[in-house]
Amino acid sequence: MKIKRVEVLVPAGKYAIGDPCYAVANDDWDGLLKSCNYFRNPIGYVEDGVQAFPVLAFSTKWGDGCYRGTDGKEYPVDAGLIGLVPAEIITDFADCELITFDKDTLCVDDGSGKLRFGHITIDTDPTDEEEDE
């Protein structure tokens, strides 16, 4: 059996969008990966001793690289993932694109390589478009 489509309703708030490996502190990375079976479950947690912060990530179609979003921005990937990290746990904003959701927002991995985070879609399987050009 294989899951073809994953939908996650993300609470309103401010997030870093992109590969979570850039936004999550190195000391928290292994714990995050273990909390979600290395993102086989798309929601993992970073714990600060008091609270657990949910982190959403979907696997890219072709792993590492750089993928363009419908917002015109490029999203570099080093862990084969693109997702959302709550702004409260980001220690270095240098490699982060920030997004704010004013209301709960649907995020979708439709199984085709297109990852949707609210109004932004990031195509991680752009080969068809490149071949047409």
Structure report:
- With 133 residues, the protein is of the alpha+beta class.
- It has one domain.
- 15% of the residues lie in helices and 42% in strands.
- It has three helices and eleven strands.
- It has helices at 20-23, 26-35, 127-132; strands at 6-10, 13-18, 43-47, 52-59, 65-68, 74-77, 81-86, 97-101, 105-109, 114-117, 120-123.
- The strands form three sheets. The protein has a five-stranded antiparallel β-sheet with strand order 3-4-7-2-8. A four-stranded antiparallel β-sheet has the order 1-9-10-11, with no helix packed on it.
- The longest helix has 10 residues, at 26-35.
- The mean pLDDT is 92.
Helicity level? 10-25%
Task: Give the integer mean of the pLDDT values.
Answer: 92
Characterize the biggest β-sheet: 5 strands, antiparallel
Strand proportion: 35-45%
Rg calculated over all Cα atoms: 14 Å
Number of strands: 11
What is the total number of structural domains? 1
Shape: globular
Return the string of H and E elements.
EEHHEEEEEEEEEH
Strand and helix layout:
Layout: E1 6-10, E2 13-18, H1 20-23, H2 26-35, E3 43-47, E4 52-59, E5 65-68, E6 74-77, E7 81-86, E8 97-101, E9 105-109, E10 114-117, E11 120-123, H3 127-132
Antiparallel strand pairs: 1-9, 2-7, 2-8, 3-4, 4-7, 5-6, 9-10, 10-11
